[in-house]
Amino acid sequence: xxxxxxxxxxxxxxAAVVGIIAGWVMRGNRCAQxxxxxxxxxxxxxxAQRSEHDRLLGxxxxxxxxxxQYQASQKDATNRAKELSSALxxxxxxxxxxxREIKDVRNTLEAAVGERDKLQADMQSQGSGADSTDTILQExxxxxxxxxxxxxxxxxxxxxxxxxxxIRDEEAEKxxxxxxxxxxxxxxxxxxxxxxxxxxxxxxxxxxxxxxxASNDDVEDSVEEGAAEKDLAExxxxxxxxxxxxxxxxxxxxxxxxSRDDLQQIKGIxxxxxxxxxxIGIFRFDQIAEMNEYDIDRIAQRLKGFRSRIxxxxxxxxxxxxxxxxxxxxx
Length: 331
Prior knowledge:
This protein is mainly alpha-helical. Among the domains are: 84-190; 227-325, no CATH class. Helices cover 72% and strands 0% of the residues. The protein has nine helices and no strands. Helix 1 packs antiparallel against helix 2 (134-190). The relative contact order is 0.06.
């Protein structure tokens, strides 16, 4: 066996050192590349969170504008109601004043008529001995004439007062009707918002359990809360609204069944949703790809709350891709 010289040992040692250095350099390069990939992933997540944050800020801004408009309209209605209430109180006061004036006029007229009748009775009882009481009769005649003129004066003043009373009464009734309308408007404005008017969707969706077959999305996809309950509700909705949708069962003939596509290939469509789409006459990808706003509204009426989901899961785009993949012919 040949002896190992010092030179050979040195060369082996040098080779081992060079290998270690090369391995260390390669390991450093790989770590740097992994670090860059991780940083890029984090950067993408940060950008997604930032865009979602901006979207939520925009929704919050819209909600604040709606609240401001509601508060302004409520304030205007309250001010209008106060003005109508004040005007109504003033009209009621004027009406009461006119009623008092009319009552006083009537009392005065009754007193004048009674005094006139009394004087006429006295004149008739003393008619035989009028020669000795000419002065008294003259005074009574003057008093009667004065009362008659006063009565005629009141008779002339009474119709305008009655007309004014009627006008004020009509104004009071009109103000009272306006006040009722304003109070009804205030109650309408003070009622709480309808949740269906301004709906803010949640950012994070709950994971779908194994029992939820309303959709064939992955666990990481966004899914509506309570999907299992919605499947039952969808089945009941199909039975209840079959007449309203105008479904003609005779159209589901042999040719239509043979030309159906597997709609469950679209993410977001499960067995229950596919059944509902069949009920309203949608069987193929090209029908979904060519849907317009009317068709989406018709589906949203049968599947409550699915308008945003159709856009979010891009049913139309998925249907176009699947239809093109099949060569543009029905399956």
